[in-house]
Amino acid sequence: MPREALLNSALALQALGLNQGTSGNASVRQGDGFVITPSGMPIDEMNANSMVEMNMLGGAISAGKPSSEWRFHRDIYQARQEVGAVIHTHSMFATTLACLRKDIPPFHYMIAVAGGDSIRCAPYALFGTQALSDHAIEALKKRRACLLANHGMIAVGKTLQQAQEVAKEVETLCEQYWRALQIGEPHNLTAEEMQDVFEQFKGYGNWNK
């Protein structure tokens, strides 16, 4: 059931250190709408009934108050029919680089996990606003993940498991990039080298399933 799956995802994100307390949120598509984690509730206090069902008009159709970030969840589902789950984290290294407003270049071939040859950083906008959603949609074009300036990360997938795997990999990449920057400027892969990676990825892992 979507509510149980969403609760398990929220607990997993906390266990992985990608979210803590009341930070971050997640959702899963359900029928003509979606189910999203509640607003302002510590993860340890959530249960399956805490999850809030919403329609694509932005209205809650079950008890509870949805995450204040419901707009970009709704807008991603409307813009990307292939997306079945959205995860937003305030994880340490993704947020650190987001506060520097840095795109992540192709310093490592696993950047391809995010769907392109970079991980874009969306411009800053106040949390919960339509402006933030608009920026996120643009940064996510042909991508499975983006950073949000001075905020955090969004990862998407066909399933909650895939979105969670993308979020984990992006956080790892952000940590690696942060560490590389402590020493110098990494050597980035060329467009041709990244194209070879995309070809190789067609038969690799769960990223294209």
In short:
This protein has 209 residues and is of the alpha+beta class.
Residue ranges: pLDDT <50 for 5 or more in a row? none
Regarding quaternary structure, what we see is: single chain
Work out the number of β strands: 7
Q: What's the CATH architecture?
A: 3-Layer(aba) Sandwich
Strand portion:
5-15%
Kindly report the average pLDDT value.
95
Could you give a short account of the major beta sheet? 7 strands, mixed
Helix percentage: 25-40%
Strand order of the largest sheet: 3-2-1-4-7-6-5
Rg (C-alpha, Å): 16 Å
How many helices? The count is 6
Describe the protein in words.
The chain has 209 residues and is an alpha+beta fold. The protein has a single domain, classed as 3-Layer(aba) Sandwich (L-fuculose-1-phosphate Aldolase). It has 6 helices and 7 strands. A 7-stranded mixed β-sheet has the order 3-2-1-4-7-6-5, sandwiched between helices. β1 and β2 form a beta hairpin. α2 crosses α4 and α3 packs across α5. The longest helix is centred in the last third of the chain and has 24 residues. It is globular, with a radius of gyration of 16 Å. The model has no long low-confidence stretch (mean pLDDT 95).
